[in-house]
Structure formats: structure tokens, C-alpha cells
Design goal:
Rossmann fold; NAD(P)-bd_dom_sf; 39% helix; oxidoreductase activity; 12% strand; SDR_fam; alpha/beta; two-stranded parallel sheet; 330 residues
């Protein structure tokens, strides 16, 4: 449960910040995937009004991150920009080394917001992983792992991982997570018939953009649950968040007419409404007792059965360390 049962789909960022007026003051806050007119930019602008000690903005494109940083009109807030590619392990390692050097003894809140969606053709990262998996999941896990000692050193560290209702489309495909091509999959790894029907997606074992996206978001949810379990004896925890359907640059890979068709049939949110659930996850003290939870519309919500399977979460945790070449620190 959250502290405010009256919060919902229409709750905006200002309402959440007013409910937790001391949640950000004096803290070190890090936001990934920052670009104009996106959730990252809206988060940065809202967080900056609350007197953080340090605001770290990250992204892949200098012009985009710098534009957001320069547009924040709170001169007393220290802002640092770090550029890196969330799909590249080498880039992540270099960036996290830099962040660990200047961020001080602790990092209090991390918003893992960077992501990609519905890349039309199968594309591999520099490390040879399918791009949704590399950016939305493996990069997120490695990035978090590399700064985790700083988060655990906070008096109330909070990791907020942006996921999606799109997770209902696909379980994690341990047999073919890279979409290399198989003729069949075990029953518990096949795309969800119900989830695919909901979004009008054809069932296929090959590369289908929404299925690849869905798998990466299921991975994010399972990882968040396992990470929170590992952190239960510390001052930190992790929460996964579904922001809602918002007209941001995340939809850039899809044809404009398809995007408009989807938007016409879905409940849309403003950017401020979109980040409200992220802020609840980060600032509500009650969420320390709900580590690993999935939030939607500012409240704890349920996920697909395959996205809360403890055996799958444990298996994925071990696989992730192997794929990312990292020894997880919890």
C-alpha cells in the first residue's frame, strides 16, 4: 500500500511533491534517459524545484541532455551531465566510474528511465544483444549494479525502474532471449496469447518488435523484485513503475499513423501525470516496506503471473550477471 490511497491516474507531479515536501531536499538524485519533452526532462524539472543537493542527468546525446540541463531555472541546484550509451557495457562502465568519482558518499534516488521501444528490424548492440534487451534490461541492471554501493550508503536509497504494461505480451525467453531464431519455445516462454490479443500483436517465435519490448520489460520487473529481496536488510530498495501512455519520443520508431491510431484508443496522460507514479515510488516512505512492487497510477498493482515467478527471477538474476560480465554486489 502507498500512503495516499486517493492518488490515481490523474494525479500530477505537484500533488505528489506537496505530499512529500522533504523527500528530495538535500539529496543526490540521478535520472537516466534525459531528453526534451520526455519523462526524464519532466522529472529533472520537477526534482530541481525541491532543492536537491545534486542532480545528475544522463543520456546518449549531448545536445538533448544539455538542453534539459540549461532549461532548468533553479540556479542554486548543482547539475552534472554524464553522457553514455545504455546499450553498451563499456560505455556504462566508463560512465559509472565517473559518477562514482564525483557523486559523494551516497546516491539517494535513481530513476532508471532510459529505454527504447518497437525497433522495426532486429538490431544488435555493440555487445551483440538484441537492442531492447540490451538497453531496457541488461544496461539497466549493469548500470545499477555499478553504482549500487553508493545507493546502499544512502539513509533511504531508492531505485525506480521504469517498466510497462507491455510486459504482459511476453515472458522472459530463456531459450531465445536474443531472438536468434527458433521454431518453437517451451510453453512457459511463449508469447502470451491474452497479452498479444490485447494489443493486436501476431503470435510468432521470431523477432516481433512488441514481443521483444515486452520481454525486456518483464525482465525489468523480475530483476526489480529480486534486487529488492537482496536489499531487504539494507536502507535501500527497488520499485518498478508503469508511467502510463504518454506522447513522448519513446514512440519514435513507429510510423506516425500507427502511433496516432494507438493514442486515439488509449487513456493518455500528461508528462506531469506520467511522472507522478515515479515520484510516489521514490518518495513515499511506505514503499520501503513494498520493495519489488509494481506501481501503476500511483498505486501498487499486479503483474502477469510470469512476471512474478520467483524461480524465473532467480534464474534471470544468475543469467544477467553472466551476460553482463558482472559480479552482482548484493
Amino acid at each position: 500500500m502507498t500512503s495516499h490511497s486517493g492518488f490515481g491516474a490523474k494525479t500530477d507531479a505537484n500533488e505528489v511533491l506537496e505530499a512529500f515536501p522533504h523527500g528530495v531536499k538535500g539529496k543526490v538524485v540521478l535520472i537516466t534517459g534525459v531528453s526534451p519533452n520526455g519523462l526524464g526532462a519532466q522529472l529533472a524539472e520537477s526534482i530541481a524545484t525541491q532543492s536537491p543537493k545534486l542532480l545528475i542527468l544522463t543520456g546518449r546525446t549531448a545536445s538533448k541532455v544539455e538542453a534539459v540541463a540549461q532549461g532548468i531555472n533553479t540556479p542554486d541546484v548543482e547539475i552534472r551531465v554524464v553522457l553514455f550509451d545504455m546499450s553498451s557495457f563499456a560505455s556504462i562502465s566508463k560512465a559509472t566510474e565517473e559518477i562514482n568519482e564525483f557523486s559523494g558518499p551516497s546516491i539517494d534516488i535513481v530513476f532508471n528511465n532510459a529505454g527504447v521501444m518497437n525497433i522495426p528490424e532486429r538490431k544488435l548492440s555493440v555487445d551483440r544483444f538484441e537492442m531492447h534487451l540490451a538497453t531496457n534490461y541488461l544496461g539497466l541492471a549493469l548500470f545499477t549494479n555499478n553504482i549500487l554501493p553508493k545507493i546502499k550508503n544512502s539513509e533511504a536509497g531508492r531505485i525506480v525502474n521504469v517498466v510497462s504494461i507491455g510486459h504482459i505480451i511476453s515472458p522472459f525467453r530463456f531459450s531465445d532471449y536474443n531472438f536468434d531464431g527458433v521454431e518453437t519455445l517451451p510453453d512457459d516462454e511463449q508469447p502470451s496469447k491474452e497479452g498479444c490479443a490485447m494489443f493486436g500483436i501476431p503470435i510468432s517465435f521470431g523477432y516481433v518488435p512488441p514481443i521483444a519490448y515486452g520481454q525486456s520489460k518483464t525482465a525489468g520487473i523480475l530483476y526489480t523484485q529480486k534486487l529488492a529481496e537482496k536489499l531487504k536488510d539494507s536502507n535501500a530498495t527497488a520499485i518498478s513503475v508503469m508511467p502510463g501512455v504518454i506522447a513522448t519520443d519513446l514512440w519514435r520508431e513507429m510510423p506516425a499513423d500507427e502511433v496516432q491510431g494507438l493514442f486515439s484508443g488509449l487513456p493518455m496522460k500528461s508528462l506531469s501525470q506520467g511522472i507522478s507514479t515515479l515520484l510516489v515510488a521514490a518518495l513515499d516512505p511506505k514503499m520501503k516496506d513494498n520493495g519489488g512492487a509494481y506501481l501503476a497510477d500511483c498505486q501498487v498493482s499486479d503483474v502477469a503471473p510470469f512476471a512474478k515467478d520467483k524461480a524465473a527471477a532467480e534464474r534471470l538474476w544468475r543469467l544477467t550477471g553472466k551476460l553482463a560480465g558482472a559480479t552482482f554486489m548484493v
